[in-house]
What we know:
This protein is mainly alpha-helical. It has one domain. It is about 65% helix and about 0% strand. Keywords: Membrane, Transmembrane, Transmembrane helix.
Amino acid sequence: MPALYVMxxxxxxxxxxxxxxxxxxxxxxxYEDLDGPAHSVLFDDQDPNHLAAIDEANRAEQPxxxxxxx
Length: 70
């Protein structure tokens, strides 16, 4: 029985710490982007085809340059 006098407050303290850490993680934005890291695994940054697609997309967003006037 005396062990319960120690174990119950210790368990309540651990639950309180876990709840505090959970709310800290939510407030600091730890759960904002849950899909980004999962999708980033699928793409290799060193893949030349992947980098070429990024360059092509960036060129498509920029307006075409006008040729210099002669």
